[in-house]
Design goal:
By secondary structure, the chain is of the alpha/beta class. The protein has 3 domains: 145 residues, P-loop containing nucleotide triphosphate hydrolases (Rossmann fold), CATH 3.40.50; 59 residues, no CATH class; 63 residues, Alpha-Beta Plaits, CATH 3.30.70. Helices cover 37% and strands 31% of the residues. It has 11 helices and 14 strands. The strands form 3 sheets. Strands 6-7-8-3-9-10 form a 6-stranded mixed β-sheet, sandwiched between helices. A 4-stranded antiparallel β-sheet has the order 2-1-4-5. A 4-stranded antiparallel β-sheet has the order 12-13-11-14.
Length: 300
């Protein structure tokens, strides 16, 4: 079942700025990642999801309702962390969280207090004097505290230190485990790799690919970096090997790509050489993304 559907969405600001013909669907209970270069259109897409701006063309449906005509009803089911956080002038963090809870009719603040403790958030701090990290944690608590069915998150871990990012990942996985559907933009590839089921790659306002993270985590093509003990073995391997992708003559080092079914044969062949070290180079979403961007640029 699709919880979010984006159909032919275009918001054109002119001079090739905006988003163009975006088509996506987010399934119930999945964490859907949304990554792209700065200015690629991530926030514009999310603002359309939230009904903050109207597109030039196309539609957004959440829970089978078109956002532009049912915004108030849809927002009852959504927790939202904006990309740019600006709090009202109502005092401290505690006052803000309580006002947000009152606005959505949330009477039980047990989960809010759990999140406050988990993030080590000082809610007595004045909103205007909070650091970027404290503001971010306050926004996260506000978005998650009602355990909404849907979470729409625009760069939610911006300003968090590495420890707090790990805690945020834990909270995100907790939300998924209770059945929440999550749409999250992020520039932190490791965060996306740890949490997301699928990821859309956005470049110059257009979707270049939607990748199942199983393809990244369990990539059938493995990359190995090999260092040799001496130049004779290094040169011999260079001349005889068909798996090579790069080499470094100075350090007697080469990189090879091997399919899963070729690994045993590869290791057997390698045993004939004096090898100083062999190390698997982890395949990452960032590597995949950069490859897709390069291909997209060549096609422009």
């Amino acid at each position: 079942m699709s919880i979010i559907e984006i159909q032919n969405l275009t918001k054109d600001y002119g001079l090739s700025r905006g988003i163009f013909n975006i088509n996506l669907e987010v399934k119930q209970g999945e964490i859907f990642g949304f990554v792209g270069t700065n200015g690629s259109g991530k926030t514009t897409t999310i603002r359309n999801l939230m009904g903050f701006i109207r597109p030039n063309a196309g539609s957004v449906y959440i829970l089978d309702q078109e956002v532009n005509y049912n915004t108030t009803q849809i927002m009852k089911h959504i927790g939202y962390v904006p990309g740019e956080i600006s709090f009202p002038d109502i005092g401290d963090g505690d006052a803000f969280i309580k006002s947000q809870a009152e606005m959505i009719g949330l009477k039980n603040l047990d989960y809010a207090n759990y999140l406050i403790k988990k993030f080590g958030l000082d809610t007595t701090a004045n909103l205007k004097h909070m650091s970027k990290g404290m503001k971010q944690k306050t926004a996260i608590v506000s978005a998650f505290m009602a355990k909404p069915d849907i979470l729409i998150l625009d760069e939610p871990s911006t300003g968090l230190d590495p420890l707090m990012r790990d805690i945020f990942v834990d909270v995100l996985i907790e939300a998924k485990q209770r059945g929440a559907t999550i749409f999250m933009s992020s520039h932190v590839f490791e965060e996306v790799e740890k949490t997301c089921d699928r990821v859309a790659l956005l470049h110059n306002g257009r979707i270049v690919d939607v990748v199942d993270m199983k393809k990244i985590r369990h990539n059938e093509l493995k990359t190995y970096k090999i260092g040799f003990e001496n130049e004779i073995d290094y040169q011999k391997y260079m001349n005889e090997n068909i798996y090579l992708t790069s080499k470094n003559d100075k350090y007697l080092q080469t990189t090879v790509d091997i399919k899963d079914e070729q690994i045993n044969k590869f290791m057997e062949e390698l045993s004939q050489y004096k090898v100083k070290y062999i190390k698997e180079v982890k395949y990452t979403l960032k590597k995949y993304f950069l490859k897709k961007i390069s291909e997209d640029n060549k096609n422009d």
